[in-house]
From TrEMBL:
Gene Ontology CC terms: cytoplasm
Region spans: Disordered: 1-25
GO BP: isoleucyl-tRNA aminoacylation
Swiss-Prot/TrEMBL keywords: Aminoacyl-tRNA synthetase, ATP-binding, Cytoplasm, Ligase, Metal-binding, Nucleotide-binding, Protein biosynthesis, Zinc
Molecular function GO terms recorded: aminoacyl-tRNA deacylase activity; ATP binding; isoleucine-tRNA ligase activity; tRNA binding; zinc ion binding
Source organism, top-level taxon: Archaea
Needed co-factor(s): Zn(2+)
Name of the protein in its database record: Isoleucine--tRNA ligase
Start and end residues of each Methionyl/Valyl/Leucyl/Isoleucyl-tRNA synthetase anticodon-binding domain: 706-854
Recorded family membership: Belongs to the class-I aminoacyl-tRNA synthetase family. IleS type 2 subfamily.
Compartments where found: Cytoplasm
Placement of sequence motif 'HIGH' region: 64-74
Length: 1075
RNA sequence: GGGCCGAUAGCUCAGUCAGGUUGAGCGCUCGGCUGAUAACCGGGAGGUCCGCGGUUCAAAUCCGUGUCGGCCCA
């Protein structure tokens, strides 16, 4: 379909150049038109083609997780990505823009379980793993569609036809490949590790998937009787269910413990407790009396042995290899009892210390949190439910010192809210700690914005990162590609790790087509490998979903399936995500890249913040402060929403959402809209041809203000480019917005209005056309990455079918030396400051701008100001409607000014007594040429007829401005540069022009009321009651006739007639169209 | 509990690196302008620079400490 087929009515800005555009900026209508237009001309595809031969730039999209819709944070993230992709493209790059989606994992499984009403793994097994997995896939696909359409709705241009999906065979293969590389380097291991287990999901979950919430738990103080000596160790725990797995008690070597003989209910107990904890423990245990028998250090207690209270109930608990002994541990503090019950099977620190001590790892529970046969008496009970029985058993033995409950923060599964259990299980690990130095080195190869994120946060995290548990005992994920031999003894050399579909097909016993095979469970579960007479079976686990996205830098290139692009592009030039990804995707990619390829897979990182509410608080459904992106789009349009999001500092700081700011952005766009449509009627009327009449052609006719706006454009272009290079697109945007609003709209357009209104075809008018046209086109290019819709529409209207198919094919403008003129920029800045002060002075004198003033005097406080006003006097005359501008240089005096003084009566009184009043009057009335004591004394002495001694304390000098002048200070950002004086004295000549202008303005308003075309000639009839004023006005009949396009000044019989009152004078005006 | 980041006008932010009278835009308000007109221009009001302590002639800025918010870790 060609452009000419487009319905003109729907697309006012398209088709003919300088066509009619709607009066009002209507974002929704603009978006609708632009979306249709993009579709019709294949704008995205054409843009990509246009830059296809440029230098490649490899951007990698961090894949959003496919559950739920796009929120403000995702929207901010994608807006940033879109803006940077567009900008980098304009700078001459072929940018990779393949979007990605993270589609596996437990969160989706639990959503599907909810949907199907499942409660645990057994329900899934019953439903059938294959069915369940296919439900997960459809769920993820559904969510993906929703996200895609959300992203498209605010104009993000990415390769939507071809996103990478972590569930595709190519992508899963990329994960297998990376993992096999890591295995080859010997960085994969299987073994017991203490992990957080969700007993409902029956899988290990990552630490960051643990959410802490308050819950009530039992507290027990238990005494462990010592062997071969009198007394017991008192321990404290909130998890009685872990006591069956107790293996040692930890003390602090440096801490002091006391041997206490305490009595309650007539019974005597001998207890060991940390000195600082004694009081508290004994009061909890309701002991009536006690005495301290001995004080010893923790070090002296090392090696003491004790009897496990539940030894009979749990016979499998190993009483050998150094268990049930006192050891030192760093994690002990003088809290609770100062003696820490340690169960390596149920705690991370316990586990580590147990490993160091060479203790066996005893964990008598299964993945569902139920005691196994090793749990002895408690077999078959869920641990949390066994708490009570265990406590009772201990009490029966007389070993319960105290019990109660506590409300404390406890970890829960982020998906199903089940309290998590710490347990030691067999898991697969990437032993990332083996390459920690390499990780830290590789960090240096990346550049971060902001840099502190890398050097503080990220480095700290990497330094403390534990081995990466990559196995999950679940269904919806990438199956771990490890096959182990029957009766495997745990030796890694004996396992087979498959790295690709082809390798899989080659090595498995079954017939598999590498092109067709689905790598998901359960397909791969049934595949076996037989080599050298040994049969291998796949381990049943799937990968932690964090592993999926960690391979995105090559997965997005379909590597290893497609090697060519990997060779050309990898590693990524740029990634950008929010700061939560420091320990997420920034980290997982570093780990994967380093372990698999020895390199960090990205060069530059832009780390942005979170989208908070207007008070800086997290948006959350329960608080009800969530702002939906589609609501923002509805209220202010996609462009305004994007402008707001992109106006926020993208480096590490959180965003505060603000409807106010977004509304301001829409208003700014409205100003741009007005700026753009202002010249169109004139250009159309005059048949302006921007190709023939370009800047070069009108160069010699350019006026100062044209040169100025072009110079400003160069500066803005330079500043914006620098800001983008610095990853501060927000600063670039504010520079551009200030240019549009402040310079183009509020100054340039105001100044050139008269030139455009000129009926004659003048060189000056053409120069203004060419200038404004150039400026508008450049503004479109500079704004395009931020506001893709409105810029498209404006660009289309300016270029018609002579330009590119889309504004997004433009190159990023460069600063042009030829038009750069810093002196001129400073001049005008100063002139505008004078103008502002001048307007203020006029207002004080109540003289409207329509009435000319005879002269304006600028008393310069700085040479630079005098220079500027000297050079730009003509412009200033025009702006202030002054007949003459006079500059008083810094070393000159403005003679019309005089000084007087104000007396300080508290000093004058005592000094002059009776005559103080007289002296004061003389002071006030004195008019002297310079503010000096000598001059003042002389004037006062003359007035009083005798010598008067004055001192500095008595007076304060004040400037006396003559009555006909009105003064105002000239300032830029609060700094004073001088004073402007406006002479508002009226003369007949000034009154004559003033009244004439009053008439013109009213006739113009009446023309508008008749909705006349701007160039329609009229007949004008004036009837002014006051003869003198009528005479004054008649002196300017020619001016009036020209301004209002009055071809005849005659009686109007039945035209548009109106009574006016001007400065108290009645006048009647009538007009009539001559067409 | 620990690490990192932030707090300046009613709102959004600059100024903090390198100490010297806190500044802009928006909003509010008063006035002006009028063929860009639901636009535009000028004036005005509006501040405990989060609190406390220290260094210094001088602190929004440097140091210490606390409070609140955000992210991460436990």
């Amino acid at each position: 379909m060609s452009r000419s087929d487009i319905d003109e009515e729907d697309r006012p800005s398209e088709g003919a150049r300088f066509g009619e555009v709607p009066d009002q900026y209507d974002p929704e209508a603009v978006e609708k038109r632009v979306f249709e237009y993009w579709e019709e001309v294949d704008a995205y595809e054409k843009t990509k083609e246009a830059f296809a031969d440029e230098e490649p730039f490899f951007f990698v999209d961090g894949p959003p997780y496919t559950s739920g819709a796009a929120h403000m944070g995702t929207t901010w993230n994608k807006s940033l990505k879109d803006a940077y992709i567009r900008h980098i493209r304009m700078r001459g790059h072929d940018v990779t823009d393949r979007p990605g989606y993270d589609m596996h994992g437990l969160p989706i499984e639990t959503k599907v379980e909810e949907r199907l009403g499942f409660e645990n793994k057994k329900d899934i097994e019953e439903f059938g793993m294959e069915n369940f997995i296919s439900e997960c896939k459809s769920f993820a696909d559904e969510q993906l569609e929703g996200l895609q359409s959300d992203f498209k709705s605010f104009g993000v241009w990415m390769d939507w036809e071809n996103p990478y999906k972590t569930v595709s065979p190519e992508y899963m293969e990329a994960a297998w490949w990376g993992f096999s590389q890591i295995a080859e380097r010997g960085l994969v291991d299987q073994g017991k590790r203490s992990i957080s287990q969700c007993p409902r999901c029956e899988t290990a979950i990552a630490n960051n998937e643990v959410e802490y919430e308050d819950r009530e738990d039992p507290t027990v103080y238990v005494s462990f009787p010592l062997r071969e000596r009198e007394g017991s160790l008192v321990i404290y725990t909130t998890t009685p269910w872990t006591i069956p797995a107790n293996e040692f008690v930890a003390v602090g070597e440096e801490l002091t413990y006391q041997k206490i003989r305490a009595t309650r209910d007539g019974e005597e107990d001998v207890l060991y407790i940390a000195a600082e904890c004694v009081e508290n423990v004994l009061s909890k245990g309701r002991y009536e009396d006690y005495e301290i028998e001995e004080e010893i250090s923790g070090a002296e207690m090392l090696g003491w042995e004790y009897d496990l209270p539940l030894a009979e109930e749990v016979p499998a608990n190993p009483d050998r290899d150094g268990t049930h002994t006192v050891y030192h541990a760093d994690y002990v503090e003088a809290e609770d009892t100062g003696l820490v019950h340690s169960a390596p099977g149920h705690g991370e620190v316990d586990f580590e210390r147990g490993q160091e001590l060479g203790l066996p790892i005893f964990c008598p529970i299964g993945g569902d949190g139920v005691y196994t046969s090793e749990g002895g008496k408690y077999e078959g009970q869920f641990v949390k439910e066994a708490d009570e029985e265990i406590t009772a058993d201990i009490e029966e033995k007389g070993l319960l010192v105290a019990s109660g409950t506590i409300t404390h923060s406890y970890g829960h599964c982020w998906r199903c809210d089940t309290p998590i259990l710490q347990m030691a299980t067999d898991q697969w690990f990437i032993t990332i700690t083996d390459v920690k130095e390499e990780l830290l080195d590789n960090i240096e190869d990346s550049e971060w914005h902001p840099q502190w994120a890398r050097d503080n946060r990220f480095r700290d995290f990497v330094e403390n990162a534990p081995d990466w548990n990559v196995s999950r005992q679940r269904y919806w994920g990438i199956p771990i590609p490890i096959w182990v031999p029957e009766g495997w003894c745990g030796e890694m050399d004996d396992v087979i790790v498959i790295g690709s579909r082809e390798e899989l097909a080659k090595r498995v016993d079954e017939d598999v087509d590498p092109e067709e095979v689905d790598l998901h469970r359960p397909t791969v579960d049934d595949l076996t490998i037989t080599e050298d007479g040994t049969t291998y079976e796949r381990v049943p686990d799937v990968f932690d979903v964090w592993l999926d996205s960690s391979v995105a830098s090559w997965g997005t290139l379909d590597y290893p399936g497609d090697e060519e692009r990997f060779e050309e592009l990898w590693p990524a030039d740029l990634i950008m995500e929010a700061h939560d990804q420091t320990r997420g995707w920034f980290w997982s990619q570093l780990g994967m890249g380093t372990a698999a390829l020895g390199e960090i897979p990205y060069d530059e990182v832009l780390m942005h913040g979170f989208a908070n509410d207007s008070e800086g608080k997290k948006m959350s459904k329960s608080v009800g402060n969530v702002v939906q992106p589609h609501e923002a789009i509805q209220r202010h349009g996609s462009d305004a929403m994007r402008l707001f999001l992109l106006s926020v500092n993208p480096q590490g700081e959180d965003m505060r959402f603000s409807w106010d700011e977004m509304a301001t952005m829409e208003r700014n766009l409205n100003i741009l809209w007005n700026v753009f449509r202002f010249p169109l009627p004139y250009m159309r009327m005059d048949g302006f041809d921007p190709e023939g009449t370009d800047l070069e052609a009108v160069d010699s006719d350019l006026e100062l203000v044209d040169e100025w706006i072009l110079a400003r454009l160069q500066t803005v272009t330079r500043e914006m480019t620098a800001a983008w290079d610095d990853f501060r697109q927000d600063q670039a945007l504010s520079a551009l917005m200030e240019f549009v609003v402040e310079d183009v709209s509020r100054f340039y357009i105001q100044v050139v209005r008269e030139r455009m209104w000129d009926e004659e075809d003048s060189p000056s008018k053409n120069a203004a056309y060419a200038t404004l046209y150039h400026v508008l086109k450049q503004v479109c290019a500079l704004l395009a990455p931020y506001a893709p819709f409105i810029t498209e529409e404006i660009y289309g209207a300016l270029t018609g079918d002579r330009g590119h198919d889309t504004v997004h094919m433009l190159e990023w403008p460069e600063q042009e030396e030829y038009w750069t003129d810093e002196q001129l920029e400073t001049d005008i800045e100063l002139v505008r400051a004078v103008e502002e002060a001048g307007s203020n002075a006029r207002q004080q004198a109540e003289r409207k701008l329509r009435w000319p003033v005879s002269r304006v005097v600028v008393a310069a406080g700085e040479d630079r100001l005098a220079e500027a006003v000297g050079r730009q006097g003509a412009l200033l005359e025009d702006r202030l409607n002054a007949r003459e501008i006079h500059v008083v240089a810094t070393d000159e005096r403005f003679e019309e000014l005089a000084y007087s003084a104000r007396a300080d009566m508290s000093v004058l009184g005592p000094q002059f007594g009776d005559r103080a009043g007289e002296v004061m009057s003389a002071l006030n009335e004195a008019r002297i040429e310079e503010p000096s004591l000598d001059a003042l004394s002389a004037a006062v002495s003359t007035a009083l007829g005798e010598d008067v001694e004055l001192t500095e304390e008595m007076v304060e000098f004040v400037e006396e401005t003559p009555e006909e002048l009105s003064g105002s200070r000239i300032t830029i950002e609060g700094n004073g540069l001088g004073v402007v004086y406006v002479d508002t004295e009226l003369t007949e000549d000034i009154e004559s022009e003033g009244y004439a202008r009053e008439v013109i303005r009213r006739v113009q308003e009446m023309r508008k009321e008749l909705d006349l075309p701007i160039d329609a000639p009229i007949r004008l009839d004036l009837d002014i009651a006051d003869d003198q004023v009528a005479g004054l006005v008649s002196e300017h009949e020619d001016l009036i006739a020209e301004e209002v396009r009055a071809a005849e000044l005659e009686t109007v019989e039945d035209g548009h007639r109106k009574e006016w009152e001007v400065e108290g004078i009645e006048m009647e005006i009538a007009i009539e169209s001559l067409e």
